[in-house]
Amino acid sequence: MLSLSNKRILLGITGGIAAYKCAELTRLFIKAGAEVRIVMTKSATEFITPLTLQALSGNRVHLDLLDPEAEAAMGHIELARWADLVLVAPATANSIARITHGEADDILTTLVLATPAPIAIAPAMNQGMWADAQTQANIAALDARGYTLIGPGSGEQACGDVGLGRLSEPEEIVTACAALFDTGALAGRHVVITGGPTREALDPVRYISNHSSGKMAYALAAEACAAGARVTLISGPVALATPDRVTRIDVVSALDMLAATLDAVDGADVFIGVAAVADYRPAHIADEKIKKSGDEIMLSLVKNPDIIAEVAKRENRPAMVVGFAAETENVVANGQSKLAAKKLDLLFANQATDTFNSDSVAITVIDAEGATELAAGNKHLVARKMLQMIAERLKLPSAH
Ligand code: C5P
């Protein structure tokens, strides 16, 4: 599957007529799941406007090394570090010469020098300029340095000549860039995960909750991202940093979590319910702080919706709906009845008392076929194994 999920492409545009193709190129990168930031040389702006590219990439275009506003948003060294791939397209004969000689007199050439990311070059120029010995020597030098060359293609040129020197078609460039990355087991998939506890308000200052730390969900989110998925993490209140490249939606109560989940799962491939959702919520939330009175008070609680069961019964349910069960007794038997009752594809069960707030976990995997043990370990390592299982099952024909 062609995917650039989560990949950060820094597109450097130089001043050739083929620069107009960068509008389509940017659109295709985004369609393939990439995030695109663009830098342009001054002459590139004569061929296509920064505004067009800003609108298509959703990010401000960087034009000048010394622009204080652009530098405040993301400095050029930060931009160089941000990229997973730097692509210069179209790369004119002049820009190829300048890159070959290590010049750094504009933002594009500076970024090319500063970036630790791989660099790809898609040349576009008149066929005579391409065939010239100096250009060929420059290209050979870049090739020897490990740059990836994309094209050029052959055909009719803007100047009327026919020959080698046309910018490769945007589809070919995107395919060549995607091939530079290892495609993970979940490349191109959208994975939605709930995590952490929910808080059910009693009054403006008090709530009912549980000890879930969110660590398992956050480990799964980070690892799903590393496996190439686009990840949405719907998180109850936890004290954890959002994993890189994960879209996090913060919620408080079970009802908030349900609404955010139903919004997010449309079109998703995988839903993993890791959250320790409160089973009940107070029947009424007092408008004012509840006053101390008497030795006992009665709380009336009502049942919360079962979020994962709501997801599983949707007509367009994700291909894999995966639950967790933190049990204190009869882990396998309770897990099996939950799998059936909630119509799950897979359930990861564990001993609740061993798991909450811990960095490691021991899991029993339960599906329609039976139960197997997953070797205990750090939550990140276990998360990787879980995602591998999910990815393998995604390839099988759906049972729904
Ligand atoms: O029934 P129990 O709470 O043990 O089920 C656990 C599984 O169901 C977990 O995947 C959890 O995220 C999900 N769940 C839910 N909504 C609830 C209760 C549990 O999504 N209200």
UniProtKB/TrEMBL annotation:
DNA-binding as a keyword of this entry, yes or no, is no
Q: Could you tell me which residue ranges the DNA/pantothenate metabolism flavoprotein C-terminal domain spans?
A: 186-392
Task: Report the function annotation for this chain.
Answer: Catalyzes two steps in the biosynthesis of coenzyme A. In the first step cysteine is conjugated to 4'-phosphopantothenate to form 4-phosphopantothenoylcysteine, in the latter compound is decarboxylated to form 4'-phosphopantotheine. Catalyzes two sequential steps in the biosynthesis of coenzyme A. In the first step cysteine is conjugated to 4'-phosphopantothenate to form 4-phosphopantothenoylcysteine. In the second step the latter compound is decarboxylated to form 4'-phosphopantotheine.
Gene Ontology biological process terms in this record = coenzyme A biosynthetic process; pantothenate catabolic process
For region Phosphopantothenate--cysteine ligase, the annotated ranges are 191-400
* Residues covered by region (Phosphopantothenoylcysteine decarboxylase): 1-190
| PANTHER family noted in UniProt | HOMO-OLIGOMERIC FLAVIN CONTAINING CYS DECARBOXYLASE FAMILY, PHOSPHOPANTOTHENOYLCYSTEINE DECARBOXYLASE
Cofactor(s) of this protein? FMN; Mg(2+)
Tell me the ranges covered by the Flavoprotein domain, including all copies.
7-178
SUPFAM superfamilies found in the cross-reference section: CoaB-like, Homo-oligomeric flavin-containing Cys decarboxylases, HFCD
Q: Which organism is it from?
A: OM182 bacterium BACL3 MAG-120619-bin3
The taxonomic lineage of its organism, from the top, reads: Bacteria, Pseudomonadati, Pseudomonadota, Gammaproteobacteria, OMG group
Q: Give the matching Pfam families.
A: DFP, Flavoprotein
Q: Which family does it belong to?
A: In the C-terminal section; belongs to the PPC synthetase family. In the N-terminal section; belongs to the HFCD (homo-oligomeric flavin containing Cys decarboxylase) superfamily.
Name of this protein: Coenzyme A biosynthesis bifunctional protein CoaBC
* Keywords associated with the record: Decarboxylase, Flavoprotein, FMN, Ligase, Lyase, Magnesium, Metal-binding, Multifunctional enzyme
Q: Which Enzyme Commission number(s) are on file for it?
A: 4.1.1.36, 6.3.2.5
| InterPro entries, alphabetized | CoaB-like_sf, CoaBC, DNA/pantothenate-metab_flavo_C, Flavin_trans-like, Flavoprotein
Q: Provide the active-site residues from the annotation.
A: C159 (proton donor)
Q: Which residues bind CTP?
A: D279, K289, P305, D306, I307, I308, F324, K338, K342
Q: How is the cofactor bound?
A: Binds 1 FMN per subunit.
Per the record, the pathway is: Cofactor biosynthesis; coenzyme A biosynthesis; CoA from (R)-pantothenate: step 2/5; Cofactor biosynthesis; coenzyme A biosynthesis; CoA from (R)-pantothenate: step 3/5
Q: What domain of life?
A: Bacteria
Reaction(s) catalyzed by this protein? (R)-4'-phosphopantothenate + L-cysteine + CTP = N-[(R)-4-phosphopantothenoyl]-L-cysteine + CMP + diphosphate + H(+); N-[(R)-4-phosphopantothenoyl]-L-cysteine + H(+) = (R)-4'-phosphopantetheine + CO2
